[in-house]
Amino acid sequence: QVHLVASGGGYVQSGSSLTLSCTSDSSANFATGWFRQAPGKDREFVAAIRWSGANKYYGRSVKGRFTISKDHARNTVFLKMNDLKPEDTAVYSCAADESGRGSGPWNHWGQGTQVTVSS
């Protein structure tokens, strides 16, 4: 059993930064991914990181602006979002990949956190 909790969302101005957190209650060696979904749009892959933290992956729309990292001691994965834009507005969710690859399947999901970016 893997349970994830996403937090850190909020309302910010365009061009600002915000950091999201995904905390797990499990010590299993799984990879963690971030996804987002805006109303009326398909779910979009944002970023992923392997358990070791050695391999990171980013979606095209956020590459160069967002950074994924993790704190092993706290069982937490972070998503540092820089230069936020209105199109980044969405519900952000984190998920766990038990294979450890960071490319799916995404076996467990946490409740999302809302990020709203004003122009």
Strand content: over 45%
Helix content: under 10%
The low-confidence parts are: none
String of helices and strands: EEEEEEEEEEE
* Largest pleated sheet: 7 strands, mixed
Describe this structure in words.
The chain is mostly beta strands. It has strands at residues 4-7, 11-13, 18-24, 31-37, 44-49, 56-58, 66-71, 76-81, 90-97, 108-109, 113-118. It has no helices and 11 strands. Strands 2, 4, 5, 6, 9, 10 and 11 form a 7-stranded mixed sheet that branches. The chain is globular, with a radius of gyration of 13 Å. 32% of the residues are buried.
Features:
single chain, 119 residues, mainly beta, seven-stranded mixed sheet, four-stranded antiparallel sheet, 11 strands, 0% helix, 49% strand
List the helices and strands and how they pair.
Elements: E1 4-7, E2 11-13, E3 18-24, E4 31-37, E5 44-49, E6 56-58, E7 66-71, E8 76-81, E9 90-97, E10 108-109, E11 113-118
Parallel strand pairs: 2-11
Antiparallel strand pairs: 1-3, 3-8, 4-5, 4-9, 5-6, 7-8, 9-10, 9-11
Task: Give the gist of this structure.
With 119 residues, the protein is an all-beta fold. 0% of the residues lie in helices and 49% in strands.
